[in-house]
Design goal:
The complex is a heterodimer of chains A (580) and B (140). Chain A is an all-alpha fold. Helix content of chain A is 75%, strand content 0%. Chain A has one domain. The chains are: A mainly alpha (580), B alpha+beta (140).
């Protein structure tokens, strides 16, 4: 027995049948092209139907990272700090620009730039000798650093530094930006070369970490000993976190993996790691070196005099928002992407003599990445940077009297400081968990350790590490703790943990920091730190990011050791982590 | 091992549906909601309408997911339609699907299911080659 209505419901769709024969092309004696595929003509509605989900998914992905963070900041400012939001329309516009810009940029990166990376990684080892390969990779390192969206943020904050108290920091950020970015790029390039060698020969990461961290710490001590230079430390260590962003990591990795596939002997599952670590350590070294060099070139007094002269010239003519903004941002965007693209094209067409599979798509991707970069730059200034600076500036209202807020201090010093540090903690925690890169890293790690290190466990230990790091960084600015006194013991502790950990965890832990500080978190945290630093009258507001980098390293390494300890006690026969 | 035997299931269809990467999950979900038992998903790369759309082709992922679902004849149309709708196959570039008859399928069938099922007469052309294969539920 079958009810007629249920038959009707099961075949709900109206349907008709057409013979496929009618739709396939027929041979035509007059037209030899008749059998070839014809170009499709689509109406506006159809085009929209295709474009809507395509762009929707990509915009939504970025919204998920930006919107909750912005809402958190706004609510905190309104409810806890009782401070109205300044120029809210501009902020919303800026954040929209961030979302749209990032979506465009990431899509452009995937469609336009990544095919270059994989193609070159595939073909290069077959056509070029090892030294040529390494030179190309080193130059690529410089190129990707310029293209990294967050690197613009560093330059943008140069003007806010107080020249009298941190002369060299001011000098480097304002007059040495080009050498600064170049040197950071050189650091990334060197890291990419070493990482590739590691891919190919399957070297262990541990000695490399020792060899990179110890000199960095030594230079830190040297710089710390010079009171004029001391303020550089925050910038130098923050550069590490800034460089390992959404351009560097995938592009360098895709090249390295391609090379490892065709030339490598290493253990492929782990060889993808390590580059990111080195790419965040070497730039620190480079920036510290640059600061020492600058200190031999000019004395602190000279800088102060020069800066005073320069600011006297500039302050006469305030530049209007629309006069300076779009053109300058576009120029910056083009300048960031163009060198990388030209270099990749040179390698592909001239060195390798290869063609691209689809020039139209690649061109579209390149245009998209440049447009995205420009839009993102605008958003960086008026969205992320503005909201971060605003929150940072009014944060002190919680515990001390500031001019901005009529009701400050809102709470007692103790409660206010606790609130501010808790605020920083939860911001770091939430922002890190929302990073898509962390999810991917978690999955990889879960597979690598055969489930011993669960995805959620990694995500939470990294997030807690970042959160503690950011809280510590904020505390550093609030209490004017010297960065070196925090960094040196923490890194030494991390080295100690590294010594006792297995290769797997060393790889994952040291990479987790660079992977998780994305293009949204970095500018926001930078701006907030600088705003806070200005508000409480600290010398400089850098250093939060460097704390946020060391935090997860220690958290993941400790977690790894705990797991291993438990495993070896609980089930001595099945210690899966004893691989390395 | 004595007593092992094979049970052939007949009246089965296979639905194959090719969609853009990361779209398969919702299509499979829709199929399972209307009674499909399981699905096999493989990764593939496809060409077709994408190349004929010019620049608009970037909106379509070259990477595809290929879903294969085995259904009974009774549920075939229902599942087919559900998948078609879930995959938005009525929009350009979203994918293609087709269905074909299966000669026979064999897999693990729980005893209680097996005992409830009526054994069918070997009438289809599949059984013309081997007339003694249909012994479903005849154990013990």
């Amino acid at each position: 027995m079958l009810r007629y209505s249920s038959v009707l419901r099961s075949n709900a769709l109206r349907h008709r049948e057409i013979s496929y024969n009618q739709l396939t092309p027929k041979p035509d004696a007059d037209n030899p092209e008749a059998l070839k595929p014809q170009k499709l003509k689509l109406g506006v509605r159809r085009v929209m139907e295709i474009l809507m989900p395509y762009s929707g998914v990509r915009v939504f992905e970025q919204m998920r990272a930006v919107v909750p963070l912005a809402i958190y900041l706004v609510l905190f400012q309104l409810i806890i700090l009782r401070q109205p939001i300044d120029s809210i329309l501009l902020l919303v516009g800026g954040l929209t620009a961030v979302i749209v810009g990032l979506a465009l940029f990431m899509e452009g990166l995937n469609v336009g730039l990544m095919p270059f990376g994989t193609l070159i990684g595939d073909k290069l080892p077959r056509k070029a000798s090892m030294p040529v390969m390494l030179i190309i990779i080193a130059m690529l390192g410089v190129g990707v650093t310029f293209a990294e969206p967050a690197i613009g943020a560093l330059q943008a904050f140069g003007a806010s530094v107080d020249v009298a108290r941190a002369p060299y920091l001011y000098e480097i950020l304002n007059n040495w930006t080009m050498p600064l970015v170049l040197l950071v790029g050189a650091g990334v390039g060197a890291a990419a070369v070493l990482g590739t060698l590691r891919f190919v020969y399957g070297w262990s990461l541990k000695p490399m970490i020792y060899a990179a961290v110890l000199p960095t710490l030594a230079l830190t001590l040297v710089v710390y000993a010079n009171p004029d230079l001391r303020a550089i430390l925050g910038l130098a260590w923050d550069c590490g976190a800034v460089t390992t962003g959404p351009v560097t990591v995938p592009l360098v990795l895709s090249l390295g993996i391609g090379i490892a596939n065709s030339a490598g002997k290493g253990d492929s599952s782990l060889s993808g790691f390590g580059v990111v670590t080195l790419a965040s350590l070497f730039p620190i070294l480079a920036v510290l070196g640059l600061s020492l060099f600058v200190s031999t070139q000019m004395s602190a007094e000279e800088i102060v005099v020069a800066a005073a002269a320069a600011s006297a010239n500039v302050s006469d003519a305030p530049v209007g928002l629309w006069e300076q903004s779009p053109l300058q941002e576009i120029a910056l965007g083009v300048r960031a992407i163009a060198p990388l693209v030209l270099f990749l094209m040179f390698v592909l067409f001239v060195v390798l003599r290869e063609g691209l599979a689809n020039k139209l798509f690649t061109g579209y991707g390149l245009v998209l990445s440049i447009v995205g970069m420009c839009v993102f730059n605008v958003g960086l200034t008026y969205g992320l940077g503005a909201i971060g600076a605003q929150t940072g500036t009014v944060l002190p209202a919680a515990f001390m009297a500031i001019d901005l807020s009529a009701v400050s201090p809102i709470y007692s010093a103790m409660l206010g400081l606790t609130l501010v540090i808790l605020f920083a903690w939860f911001m770091g925690f939430g922002a890190t968990l929302a990073e898509p890169a962390l999810n991917a890293l978690g999955l990889t790690v879960q597979n690598l350790t055969n489930g011993a290190f669960k995805k959620s466990m990694l995500m939470y230990s990294v997030a807690i590490g970042v959160a503690c790091g950011i809280a510590l960084g904020i505390a550093k600015i609030l209490f004017e703790i010297d960065l070196a006194t925090l960094l040196i013991p923490l890194y030494l502790f991390a080295l100690l943990l590294t010594f006792f950990s297995t290769e797997e965890f060393v790889n994952v832990a040291w990479d987790s920091a660079g992977v998780t500080t994305g293009p949204v978190t970095v500018p926001l945290v930078l701006a907030m730190g600088l705003g806070l630093g200005n508000a409480v009258g600290a010398v400089e507001g850098f250093g939060i990011l460097s704390m946020a980098s060391i935090g997860p390293i220690i958290a993941v390494l400790s977690m790894g050791l705990i797991i291993r300890f438990r495993q070896s006690r609980g089930a001595p026969a099945t210690t899966q982590t004893k691989g390395g | 091992m004595a007593g092992r035997q094979i049970t052939y299931l007949t009246d089965a269809q296979m639905i194959t549906c090719i969609v853009q990467a990361s779209q398969a999950d919702k299509v499979v979900k829709a199929a399972q909601d209307v009674g499909a038992q399981g699905a096999t998903i493989t990764y593939a790369r496809g060409t077709g309408v994408r190349e004929r759309m010019g620049l608009l082709g970037v909106a379509i992922d070259e990477q595809k997911e290929m879903i294969r679902i085995i259904v009974s004849q009774e549920q075939a149309d229902r599942v087919f339609e559900a998948m078609y709708l879930a995959g938005d196959l009525d929009k350009p570039g979203m994918g293609i699907m087709f269905m074909n008859d299966l000669d026979r399928i064999a897999t693990y069938i729980p005893d209680e299911v097996l005992n409830d099922a009526k054994q069918t007469k070997p009438t289809r052309k599949a059984s013309s080659k081997s007339k003694t294969t249909k012994k479903a539920g005849a154990k013990k």
